[in-house]
Amino acid sequence: MNYIISDDGTVTIGQFDPEANQENSSLAPIVIEAESDDTLVQDGYVPLVSQIGTKKDTPLIEVPQNISVVTERQLDDRAPKTLNEALAYTPGIVTSAFGFDTRYDSFTIRGFDGVYNGVFRDGLRQFSGSSAVYRAEPYGVEGVEILKGPSSTLYGASSSGGFANIVTKRPTKERLREVEFIAGNNKRFQGNFDFSDAIDDEETIKYRLTGVVRDSETDLPGYNDNRTYIAPVIEWKPTEDTKLTVLTEYMDSQTGGTAFFYNDANGITDLYSGHEDWNDFDHEQYRLGYEFEHRFNDTFTFRQNTRYANVDINLEYAYRQGAGGSIQNAGLAVEEQETFVIDNHLITSVDTGPVKHTLVTGFDYGTNEYEQRQGFGAIGGVITMNPALDVDQEQDQIGIYMHDSLAWRKWRLNAGVRYDFLDAETKNNTGTIKQDEEEMSWQLGLSYVTDFGLVPFANYSTSFTPNVGSLVGGAPAAPTVGEQMEAGVKYEFLNDNAVIQASVFQIDQEDGVVFDSSSGLNVQVQQDMRSRGFELEAVATLTEGLSLNAAYAYTDVEIKDGPSGTVGKQVSGIPLHTFSSYVDYEFQNSTLRGLGISGGVRYFGESEGNDQNTINNDERYFFDAALRYDLGEISNKLEGAEFKINANNLFDKDGQICASGSCYKDEGRTVQASLRYRF
């Protein structure tokens, strides 16, 4: 299976020599109607074409970098409740280091933290502070792209391990009307709706409106998981060469204030830290932005993407101290974060002799205002705010970049360079600290597209990432820098919808911001880390009704410089070995037509429980399963209706996991049934 992207944006899939991609020729192929500015072209479990690796429509098989994608079909089959669950079957990503905790989308990519600098939305960075962290509603997502390794050249500030790009649902080509009701254990009740259609007869204006209302308890007493979410999207396309998409969202969530259990010298206990009268995490966020594109001619295309966003949190939590956790105290965190990001770039397509260039030149700007207030007291008493923990921070970052994708015969070369300027000011009780930084990042990647589906590749890339918030004592963290060397191979089955990729890598990071508990307090510090490993992934959707993805990762993360007793040790919470596989089968021509069954397994090997490596985590494994049935097979009157049951952690494994010296419990078995109707 290979691809041609023609001038009119049609993606052609067929079997042909890869050199045909340069000549724009076609063979008797299968044609998928897809506009060139579609964010993500996918077929079942298999991603085909995306802009994530180059900021232009590119077959993912050709990009000289490891990219994983959680497609819309995977999301639909697994029905994840959080972004963590959506990423659970992705190689190199660990979502379980902190057990059950729905307050944040907390994960690592290739051993590096992803929650603060590793989440993008529609190609733009999401700034995140200590607890003022933007969250994702999986029902409002049509795919998650995971770009592995430092990627500052095109995207600026991001995690050294890479980032997950959340792709918002856009207006569909055909009219969509969907309503869904979900009920599950822990008194979980949820309603979803998703509508998309053209507003005018010429179909130049389209909309999509997605919403969620949820009321739910959890395994933990007094820990709720409630949400109201609505995301209107308007698309205006007056001509084939011009398009404006306005993307908006409002989300109000309430969860428990803590998912933490009291830890003693022997590890975790069964004593929950939360208190029923002081256990609320109120989280409100909204965003407003747009994506504009205009194609001047065959040579020049201009794009401008922008977003304003705000997140406001009020976190009430309890914690235990003293012998046996007998003393229960209260904490309060109030934070607000206001951000604006904009990315402008010009895509230039030119030829220099036999070499085809697609040059992306642009500049982006991001500004962030972050406020944090914290206080402590007794349960039922007065909370005293501590001025020593106040943080007021403003950051402005400007990036200028140039990236060239060159194609010559079967060779593909990506080369890019970027220069960043940071101007930041942090105010605390001791005064004002200013930061004025400059840094250059660059990338070089090469791949060779054979005519039998095999694509070897190699790359080198660097990153530069200013950090939001402050370290212990109130001083701002230094920017984090990283560099990666990676080599691998991708294989695309020419006659089947299936792809396999494998890669080896090493990432060196300086001044990463991590949590350390060696002093008895869980505080943010900076340390240098080295991660090296191997990743293997296979995805397929076959005509016989079988879809699958399988992943294995070996991740070895060593602390090169950090707090006393940690140098030379393994980073906590990161297993050396992880494996996952999810298989879905939909019965075809038989009496069971309309029935779909699926199941998956997630395995996490042994890991360290603290950065001093004095606590060890046992291996863990979880099984998931799902069953669905198209009720239209029973009667034509039920056409468009589907019943589905999803179960996570089917065998109710509820062990413990420790990271950064603190221990947590895994979420027990969850079961939810849904009835969906499309009309």
Automatic annotation (TrEMBL):
Its main location: membrane. Keywords: Cell outer membrane, Ion transport, Iron, Iron transport, Membrane, Receptor, Signal, TonB box, Transmembrane, Transmembrane beta strand, Transport. GO terms for molecular function: siderophore uptake transmembrane transporter activity; signaling receptor activity. It is found in: Cell outer membrane. It is a multi-pass membrane protein. Residues 60-162 form the TonB-dependent receptor plug domain. GO terms for biological process: siderophore transport. Pfam families: Plug, TonB_dep_Rec_b-barrel. InterPro entries: Beta-barrel_TonB (IPR000531), Beta-barrel_TonB_sf (IPR036942), Plug_dom (IPR012910), Plug_dom_sf (IPR037066), TonB-dep_rcpt-like (IPR039426), TonB_sidphr_rcpt (IPR010105). One of its GO terms (cellular component) is cell outer membrane. Residues 237-650 form the TonB-dependent receptor-like beta-barrel domain. NCBIfam families: TonB-siderophor (TIGR01783). Belongs to the TonB-dependent receptor family. This is TonB-dependent receptor. It comes from Kiloniella litopenaei.
